[in-house]
Amino acid sequence: MSLRDILKMGDARLLRMAEPVQAFDTPALHALIADMRETMAAVNGAGLAAPQIGVNLQVVIFGSAARNPRYPDRPLVPQTVLINPVIVPLGPDEEEDWEGCLSVPGLRGVVPRWSRIRYTGVDERGQPIDRTVDGFHARVVQHECDHLIGKLYPMRVRDFSRFGFTEILFPQISAAEDD
Length: 179
Ligand code: NI
What we know:
Largest sheet: 5 strands, antiparallel
Number of strands: 8
Number of helices: 3
Strand content: 25-35%
Low-confidence stretches: none
Order of helices and strands: HEEEEEEEHEH
Bound molecules: nickel (II) ion
């Protein structure tokens, strides 16, 4: 395992369409996921997509530990490896909430997302995943899967009066816990 550098917005590698994974349960795929887990844990992230470490594959990981200092009030999301995902919105409802991104450090913005989604895909062994979720879980999945189509959350912000620096918007979040 090794800690990988997280690419920041402005890097053209974050704007690519990621390629589907073709081979499962391979040493290379397990090594990628181990690196992603270590990198996400080191910065208390709620999720990480392979393109954020420069790997152009449709692989995301997400999930909240028992206590994530970045999101102390957020509901738990199971630790998940999701590969080759497909998201289907269930109904027209959207909801807004604040998001940050490890590739956009120091900033937060209000982003509209589908309220309720079904997502499908496979895990690192090729076993199917099929879940219907809402709220924060649905938001995390939509945010991470956006990284696979070259979208960063600021591209989804509609109201830039609710976009800014974390230290100004949320002064109670310490610098050490910011992104
Ligand atoms: Ni992100």
